[in-house]
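Table S2 (text version). Query chain:
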Amino acid sequence: MAINKLIITSVLVKDQDEALKFYIEKLGFEKNLDLPIPNTNERWLTISPKNQKEIQILLRKPRAGENELIIKEMNDKIGKGSLWTFSTDNCEETYHELASKGVNFVYPPFKSVAGTEAIFEDLYGNRFSLLEIPK
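Corresponding C-alpha cell output:
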C-alpha cells in the first residue's frame, strides 16, 4: 500500500454558496464537482484554479448529522487553517486585479525569501499567499 498523491484538500466555510461565489467571481476559480450528499441538504462542492485540476479544494461546511463535538470543533477552525500558496507570474499585477474585485489583502506584495509574495484572505478569514518565484 502507498499514498499516491494529494487530490482534494478542504477549506472550512460557513456558507457554500457564498464561498463558491467568492472563489469564482473574485479569484477566477472554476467549479469542478457539485454533488448532493444523500439523505442530507448538504453537498460535495469542489473548486480549483482554471489551470489546475490535479488538486481540488473542497468547500467544506460542517454538516448536520455529524457528531456535535466535531461540528463545534470544525466551526471553531473556520478562518484559522493553514496558509496555502498559489503561484502567479506577476504578483503585483495579480494583487491589483484581485484587490479591485474586493479581495481583502492582509499584506500587499513584499519581497520574501522565495520571491514576491502577497497575503489575502477569503470571506471567513482563511489566508492564502500569492507567490511569484523569480525565474
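Notes on Table S2: The beta strands are 8-12, 30-36, 43-48, 56-60, 84-87, 104-111, 116-121, 127-132. The radius of gyration is 16 Å.
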